[in-house]
Q: What sequence folds into this?
């Protein structure tokens, strides 16, 4: 009796073991697709970035309900990077080495992106950066779905100069995003025959702006370009309104990211103009449908911003890439991007990935904040390609410099 | 007129920096300067005052009352924390650093989880005034007056009331005070609560001008520590001149070279003061009097 039992157990164990062995290599192809999500869920940037995590959750749930990516479910590996660049480096190593994710969705501030990018390169990972930024990243390991200066500033600045006058004053956050964006603004203002009457860089975390306000009032500015980042710097609007500065403002980051028009008392943001590829007030059927399903899934979400739309689009682009390539291998995915027809109809309309720079085309909306903080859209630019990198000589289908370029340090001429 | 406008502009910038330094350092001056407790949750008392102010003001309370509410709630929270945590660590400064840091983390993360990443602001009252070509926020002029009133009020409280004498006696010679029948534990609790209430007041006063986020207290911390350290051990002799000197440095550096240099100037000033006058301004002033 016992003898027979033991034999039976042995047989079962052997059979089980073989089954396990057989399942081993299969699991990599049949198991879940792991997606690392590194976003700031606390700290200075949390107001703008919590919604990105929820957008990724929403897309993952939708894709999983529809049968996953090529039949494989998505498994999200989410870490809170706490608005801290060191956390990005730590967690980027962890998702790539320990969690062995297939792709990473990461980063809000440009400082954090530049902090983690060398690690993505080191382990030959693949990362989606779903934020608008100062442009110029030519790196085959990165796919950027956010808008860039040729989409946001080449539209906004000439429009502001035409409408309000040629003199611009820039108030920018003092780190790579603010410095390079200010360089773009300077160049576009000068190309269009205007004058920079002032330029000021504010350290992150500064919340008192009396002197800057006085400087602006003492200049001949026709409009102020506000490239302020983080919760502390957002105090500027309230203080400028209290001092009755009364100048129109132009920005690539406000409203579309930090929904300042919802957080501050009207009319402190009146006459703020923002070029954005998505905000929840956009009145198209696609946008309304997106807002509706987002609120159904996350009723407490304070605001659905452009990064939420970008993150959602990025998830769907990744699904398409993997399904067309039949694998999660990065080279195969890049091969699909090189075909030049990776497009998606999402909340912000149709978008496509540019093979040369791995950046995304956008329809850009000019959002104007009215006196009561409602939003109107005086102008829409349809389907602007991210052309600057490709035109300046970045071609990721040919080589991968893994560098960031700016107007003053463009890609080296071949 | 032109000259007047320029002088007013410079005075306003000085006054604005002075008000910010005085208001943000008052609470820390009592808790750190006087009692000698290193409280890393100080910024969270400020945040608490600001949040309560915004919430009560939005519920319909007039702003001055809302600000007092903010100070009061911060004070009560401060007394509760003194009784449960800080009281047991008076003679263990390193442990009190860890404990108050923990409280700070719990408070910011707790706020983030309970109330979300931001709270709607309440808008700056009183509008603006115009001098020459420039316009200024009238509310910030009120803040300057409040800063001077605050210094005066604290001086009167600690030097011309019974509570003030007992509080100073308790902190300087606790055994002697106890021998004379003073309930020192109660006095410690009240003084800590007063410091927390002053921090809450700072939050409440600046709430209408700032972004309401759980980490907002952090933007006050550097300025307040710098002022208290430069002021030295006797805060009532040291804090006012320290705030005045630092305000001149900060306002002029910011005016000439921008915000970054304003901050650098502030920190360099502290390094110089600590090196040259280790006792701070108050020790130096007292010595030169003798």
A:
């Amino acid at each position: 009796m016992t003898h027979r039992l033991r034999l039976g157990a042995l047989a079962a164990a052997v059979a089980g073991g073989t089954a396990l062995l057989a399942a081993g290599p299969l699991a990599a192809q049949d198991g879940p697709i792991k997606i690392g999500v590194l976003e700031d869920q606390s700290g200075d940037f949390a107001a703008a970035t919590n919604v990105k995590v929820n957008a990724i959750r929403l897309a993952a749930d939708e894709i999983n309900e529809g049968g996953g990516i090529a039949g494989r479910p998505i498994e999200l590996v989410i870490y809170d990077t706490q608005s801290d660049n060191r956390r990005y480096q730590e967690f980027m190593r962890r998702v790539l080495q320990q969690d062995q994710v297939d792709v990473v969705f990461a980063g809000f501030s440009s400082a954090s992106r530049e902090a983690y990018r060398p690690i993505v390169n080191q382990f030959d990972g693949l990362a989606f950066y779903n934020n608008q930024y100062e442009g110029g990243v030519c790196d085959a390991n990165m796919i950027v779905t956010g808008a860039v200066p040729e989409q946001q500033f080449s539209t906004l600045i000439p429009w502001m100069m035409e409408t309000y006058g040629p003199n611009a004053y820039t108030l920018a956050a003092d780190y790579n995003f603010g410095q390079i964006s200010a360089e773009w603004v300077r160049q576009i203002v000068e190309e269009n025959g205007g004058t920079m009457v002032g330029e000021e860089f504010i350290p992150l975390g500064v919340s008192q702006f009396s002197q800057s306000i006085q400087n602006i009032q003492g200049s001949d500015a026709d409009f102020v370009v506000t490239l302020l980042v983080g919760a502390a710097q957002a105090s500027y609007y309230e203080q400028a309104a209290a001092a009755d500065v009364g100048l129109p403002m132009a920005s690539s980051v406000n409203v579309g990211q930090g929904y300042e028009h919802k957080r501050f008392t009207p009319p402190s943001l009146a006459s703020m103009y923002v070029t954005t590829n998505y905000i929840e007030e956009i009145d198209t059927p696609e946008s309304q449908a997106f807002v509706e399903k987002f609120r159904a899934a996350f009723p407490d979400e304070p605001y659905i911003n452009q990064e939420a739309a970008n993150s959602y689009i990025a998830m769907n682009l990744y699904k398409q890439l993997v399904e067309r390539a039949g694998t999660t291998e990065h080279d195969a995915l890049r091969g699909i991007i090189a075909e030049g027809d990776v497009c998606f109809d999402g909340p912000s309309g149709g978008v496509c990935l540019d093979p040369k720079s791995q950046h995304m085309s956008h329809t850009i909306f000019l959002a104007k904040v009215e006196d009561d903080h409602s939003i109107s859209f005086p102008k829409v630019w349809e389907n602007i390609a991210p052309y600057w990198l490709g035109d300046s000589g970045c071609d990721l289908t040919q080589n991968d410099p893994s560098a960031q370029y700016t107007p003053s340090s463009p890609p080296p001429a071949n | 007129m032109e000259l007047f406008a320029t002088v007013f502009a410079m005075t306003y910038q000085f006054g604005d920096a002075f008000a910010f330094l005085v208001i943000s350092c008052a609470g820390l001056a009592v808790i750190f300067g006087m009692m000698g407790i290193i409280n890393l949750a100080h910024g969270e008392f400020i945040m608490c005052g600001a949040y309560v102010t915004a919430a009560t003001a939005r519920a319909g309370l007039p702003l001055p009352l809302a600000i007092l509410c903010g100070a009061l709630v911060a004070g009560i929270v401060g007394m509760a924390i003194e009784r449960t945590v800080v009281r047991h660590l008076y003679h263990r400064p390193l442990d009190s650093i860890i404990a108050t840091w923990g409280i700070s983390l719990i408070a910011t993360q707790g706020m983030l989880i309970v109330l979300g990443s931001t709270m709607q602001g309440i808008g700056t009252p009183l509008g603006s005034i115009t001098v020459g070509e420039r316009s200024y926020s009238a509310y910030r002029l009120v803040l300057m007056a409040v800063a001077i009133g605050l210094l005066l009020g604290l001086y009167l409280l600690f030097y011309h009331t019974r509570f003030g004498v007992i509080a100073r006696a308790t902190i300087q010679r606790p055994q002697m005070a106890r021998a004379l029948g003073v309930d020192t534990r109660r006095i410690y609790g009240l003084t800590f609560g007063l410091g927390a209430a002053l921090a809450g007041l700072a939050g409440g006063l600046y709430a209408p001008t700032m972004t309401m986020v759980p980490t907002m207290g952090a933007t006050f911390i550097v300025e307040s520590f710098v002022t208290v350290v430069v002021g030295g051990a006797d805060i009532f002799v040291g804090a006012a001149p320290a705030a005045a000197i630092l305000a001149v440095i900060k306002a002029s550096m910011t005016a000439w070279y921008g915000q970054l240099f304003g901050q650098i100037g502030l920190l360099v000033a502290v390094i110089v003061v600590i090196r040259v006058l280790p006792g701070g301004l108050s020790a130096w002033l007292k010595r030169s009097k003798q």
About this structure: The first helix of chain B runs from residue 2 to 34. The CA atoms of residues 82 and 189 of chain B lie 6 Å apart. The longest strand of chain B covers residues 128-131. Chain B has a mean pLDDT of 84.
